[in-house]
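Journal club side-thread
Mid-discussion, someone asked how the predicted structure for our own chain would compare to the paper's figures. Pasting it here so we can look after the session.
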Amino acid sequence: MVKLTEQNREEYAQSILNAINENYIQQFRQLFFELHPQDQVDVYLLMNTSQRKNLYELLSPEEFAEVFEELAIEDQKSFLQELDQTYAQDMVSHMSADDVADFLAEIQHSKASAILAGLEAENAKDIKELLGYEEDTAGAIMTKEFINLRATSQIREVIDLLRREGPDAETIYYLYVINEKHELAGVVSLRDLITSNPDDLVETVMSTRVVSVKTNEDQENVAKLFKKYDFLAVPVTTDHNKLVGIITVDDILDVMEEEATEDIGEFAASRGATDLSISSFTAAKKRAPWIILLMFFGMITASVIGQFEDTLEAVVLLAGFIPLIMDSAGNTGTQSLAVAVRSIALGTLEKKGLGKMVFREFKTGVMLGLMCAVTLMIIIPILHGSVWLAFIVGMSIFLSLSIATVIGTIVPLAINKMNLDPAIASGPFITTVNDIIGLLVYFSIATALLTYL
């Protein structure tokens, strides 16, 4: 199998495009199927409409299904319009049930119904089941293409079963054992099977200590489970322990990317607007609520400054340090926010304890504030010739940073306690809150010591 590198990517891709342009069927198929499936997708995306039309004639629906299911959903929706209805129906029938469910969930209901109607009854049933689970749960991301065993089967029978059904299964590295009620009873690895006596029964090599997830388990919790146990796959069961599917590590990688993207959006107050495929209008609509809310918070900041107008008029130089106070407090609070959200996501909060974490961040803020204060108390007298001004700014930084770390830690923890995503305590929100507190501290100290300036 050829894996394209940056050096030979264009040259190899051009060879494929030339073959398809000239209708060199044998050459095209040889070059195309030498590629890794993901590289096949890359070449497909380079093709123009005419070249893609030729490709549909040179690849069977089953062969093209492997390319189509690797495309992004938006690309799938676009390219589906190019396919003949019969070809498209046949192609979809060869895709994994979970990939079909993901695709159908994103297209118009009428089109999805038409595709389902053309599938075999068993396939359609599996896909409808997957579509019936709540979004972002284990049931919604599981696959139905798996092999289950009976404890009373001989290992030689299982090996024969793998030869017949293995090519269509999502994975065969872990095989799950069920009882007569279709309940999950055990797990056996491929290694155990091929290293055991063919005449032995599955029950002699299987493990009954199986880690599984329920269909309604949040996908983020499933991802944590994979990380904890280094799983390649995990079985999914109903509340009555009936085995209904499996989740594989490739699906979990997609989940981790999705969750990371979501958290980044929350941190930047732009949830749902980080996808470059959406229009400017849609992006603006998604960002607008946070921006407007933060604008009102900004008005509070302006009001705080207005309350200390007399202090500013008395010593105009104080205004020059407002950005320093605001930025330092906001940035420090955002750092603590990141620590808190990450600790919650990784589960380290439960191990360390809430009190220890808050106290640790507070001590960090105190030390950061102390370092910044000492630095400013040395620099400001040199630049502005005022020891009292240096003391006011230094003390304000010290207190602001100490408080900011506590706020940046407590807010996401409180939100998490309310069973909400702690990432909604976004960076801009924490920054604005700490700006206001930093200004209150700064002007309160400055007003109290105004006679010394």
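Post-session note: Residues 9-137 form a domain with the MgtE N-terminal fold fold (CATH 1.25.60.10).
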